[in-house]
Amino acid sequence: MAVMTFREKILATLKGEATDCLPYVPRLDLWYKANKLRGTLPSKYKKATLTEIVDDLGVGYHAIIPDFLDFVDPLDEVDRALGIYRLRTLPYRTVLRGIRRNISYEGDLTCVEYQTPAGKVTTKVVYDEAMRQAGVTITHILEHAIKSVDDYEPVAYIFEHAEVQAAYEQYLVAKEEVGDRGVAVAYVSLAGSPMHLIQRELMSYNIFFYELHDHPKELEWLTQRIQGYYQRVFDVVAKSPAEVILLGANYDAQITWPPFFREHITPTLARAADTLHAAGKFLLTHTDGENKGLLQSYLDSKIDIADSICPAPMTQLSLRDVREAFAGKVTVWGGIPSVSVLENSMSDREFEEYLADLLVQAGQGDHLILSIADTTPPDATFSRIERIARAAREFGPVGRV
Hints:
Blueprint: H1 6-15, H2 29-38, H3 50-57, E1 92-96, E2 100-106, E3 109-116, E4 119-126, H4 129-133, E5 140-143, H5 152-160, E6 162-166, H6 168-178, E7 186-189, H7 194-202, H8 205-214, H9 216-238, E8 244-249, H10 258-264, H11 266-278, E9 282-286, H12 295-300, E10 305-309, H13 319-326, E11 331-337, H14 348-361, E12 368-373, H15 382-394
Parallel strand pairs: 7-8, 8-9, 9-10, 10-11, 11-12
Antiparallel strand pairs: 1-6, 2-3, 3-4, 4-5
Helix pairs in contact: 5-9
């Protein structure tokens, strides 16, 4: 079989078609940023770019989760606490209308006051040295927009009046940068639905659970008012030149427990999947938590890719469990737990045994794109990253050739 580019391998895997080997597309961005900052990149890569390292390793370029600091104007990041990003690689841009923002900075803190005709809300996010040392690019919310039911109306106003503009040209630049090394996934949101947005971005978790119990009708009303913004974003991204779209991330069987997922996230993902499938595109969602009890919900959501599946020993499910449940209907992107590449978690012998068993669990290798889930940790043993790459090549062709 002719040698395929990683872009070809990925798209063929999603379609259930043959590939020349098992694709290995590790997420190395955080590993690279942390080690470059610390001056601890492998000696031969001291002056290399991430792209050059990927090419030398002979692996695919992971272009799913964006660099959340990859913006042009510093003002582009100030609405992060609302779950609104304006990044260089995104195929859309959100413009807030009818409000006034008062922005201030206190060291590593960014503080924003949103003044709307319906009242005001405030947020605070932090990006500190510890986060920089870890290679993290997404800032942490210290103060959420919604502290009580009194904040629902101004937050609803912000989203109802938000304008969504197409930004296909900047996405095409990002797609060109990735080239044949991989697939540039178009980002919609880390929240899989309006209710998920409220839970993960707009409220602290403890307040969310109180509100879900104390004000369920008001909370549902808020999701309906955010839904229009969600639909505007998705309509723009669905028409973009991207083949794969990311909607939703960071689920967990305790935080997004199965009944909650079925009621508040599955319907939005399923509608998105129907739209994308009609256009010949694929839906990816980032499933990096404890997935026990959620696999059927993923199937019901009609997703094409379960990104960053992390198996045992970090979660309760094995790779075999997940693949058997998906039965070729969903592609697993991930499958390698991050602890396996850490010397303080597995000895060399344990790593080799684990990798050998993992490849047995991969079965025929169909609908599988190997990656280290959730990401390659900064302290990963580089020789193990290389070892997985060799194992993926040695796995041989997948599917009929």
